[in-house]
UniProtKB/TrEMBL annotation:
<keyword id="KW-0418">Kinase</keyword>
<comment type="function">
    <text>Catalyzes the phosphorylation of ribose 1,5-bisphosphate to 5-phospho-D-ribosyl alpha-1-diphosphate (PRPP).</text>
</comment>
<dbReference type="GO" id="GO:0006015">
    <property type="term" value="P:5-phosphoribose 1-diphosphate biosynthetic process"/>
</dbReference>
<dbReference type="InterPro" id="IPR012699">
    <property type="entry name" value="PhnN"/>
</dbReference>
<feature type="compositionally biased region" description="Basic and acidic residues">
    <location>
        <begin position="26"/>
        <end position="44"/>
    </location>
</feature>
<protein>
    <recommendedName>
        <fullName>Ribose 1,5-bisphosphate phosphokinase PhnN</fullName>
        <ecNumber>2.7.4.23</ecNumber>
    </recommendedName>
</protein>
<feature type="region of interest" description="Disordered">
    <location>
        <begin position="1"/>
        <end position="50"/>
    </location>
</feature>
<dbReference type="InterPro" id="IPR008145">
    <property type="entry name" value="GK/Ca_channel_bsu"/>
</dbReference>
<dbReference type="InterPro" id="IPR027417">
    <property type="entry name" value="P-loop_NTPase"/>
</dbReference>
<keyword id="KW-0547">Nucleotide-binding</keyword>
<feature type="compositionally biased region" description="Gly residues">
    <location>
        <begin position="10"/>
        <end position="24"/>
    </location>
</feature>
<keyword id="KW-0067">ATP-binding</keyword>
<comment type="pathway">
    <text>Metabolic intermediate biosynthesis; 5-phospho-alpha-D-ribose 1-diphosphate biosynthesis; 5-phospho-alpha-D-ribose 1-diphosphate from D-ribose 5-phosphate (route II): step 3/3.</text>
</comment>
<comment type="similarity">
    <text>Belongs to the ribose 1,5-bisphosphokinase family.</text>
</comment>
<feature type="binding site">
    <location>
        <begin position="57"/>
        <end position="64"/>
    </location>
    <ligand>
        <name>ATP</name>
    </ligand>
</feature>
<feature type="domain" description="Guanylate kinase/L-type calcium channel beta subunit">
    <location>
        <begin position="49"/>
        <end position="228"/>
    </location>
</feature>
<dbReference type="GO" id="GO:0005524">
    <property type="term" value="F:ATP binding"/>
</dbReference>
């Protein structure tokens, strides 16, 4: 099966992309007196929208652990629960396990905001995530690096929290999960290098926070919180 977010027709559809109708909103017809109405619209304050915080990085870097730490510290931060064609008892993050057939149904009926294929599984973010963002709330999601271009095209503001760690630490963590054999772990480590789409995708993001997760988890979470919520950094 494919590596992280490989484009092309496969079990998850045609690569990392958004749900049906994701290319943009329908054009609104201009009412009579359009010039005055346009000026009135310009004077209105922009509708506040929440940030999509996309946590990305190689396998074993600790994305889910960092997300859990962020949500524990900020209960108002919405954690996006992913839909995955992985067995329910596989461990790791809380997720909704579905069959490939069910995943295709969710995708084809517009109930996934984004989806991609990685490491032989299909991953998706539920479309209901958009309601949180539209209401002004922030949402944090474990996202494939290859899905960032579509995320940047659909959800703004987009904040990318890019994690990395030493290869030896990555290998240790992957082995500790107990989900894969040595060959599978080696395959994941071989894909540690960022995919070609990452650089232009990061350029499109509204903010990029790059952190090393080599040390204590608490230190990484604290650094992420300070960068994401500078207004509360250092507060008692």
């Amino acid at each position: 099966m494919s590596g992280e977010g490989r484009d092309g027709d496969g079990a998850c559809g045609d690569g990392a992309r958004g749900g049906s109708g994701s290319g943009g909103s329908a054009r609104e017809d201009e009412p009579h007196g359009g010039e005055a109405t346009g000026k009135a619209r310009e004077e209105q304050p922009p509708v506040p929208r929440g940030r999509l915080i996309a946590v990305v990085g190689p396998s074993g870097v600790g994305k889910d652990s960092v997300i859990a730490g962020l949500v524990a510290a900020r209960p108002d931060l919405h954690r996006v629960r992913r839909v995955i064609t992985r067995p329910e008892g596989a461990g790791g993050e809380p997720f909704d396990a579905v069959t490939p057939e069910r995943f295709a149904q969710l995708r084809d009926t517009g109930r996934l905001a984004l989806w991609w294929e990685a490491h032989g599984y299909c991953y998706g973010l539920p479309a209901r995530m958009a309601a949180v963002l539209q209401a002004g709330g922030d949402a944090v999601a474990n996202l494939s690096r290859a899905a960032l271009p579509e995320a940047a095209a659909r959800f703004r503001p987009l904040v990318v929290l890019a994690l990395d760690a030493d290869p030896a630490r990555l290998a240790e963590r992957l082995a500790g999960r107990g989900r894969e054999d040595a060959a599978a772990i080696a395959g994941r480590l071989s894909r540690r290098a960022p995919p070609p789409v990452l650089a232009p995708a990061l350029a499109q993001a509204d903010a990029v926070i790059a952190l090393s997760n080599d040390g204590a988890l608490g230190e990484t979470v604290a650094a992420a919180l300070a960068a994401l919520f500078p207004e509360t950094a250092g507060a008692a």
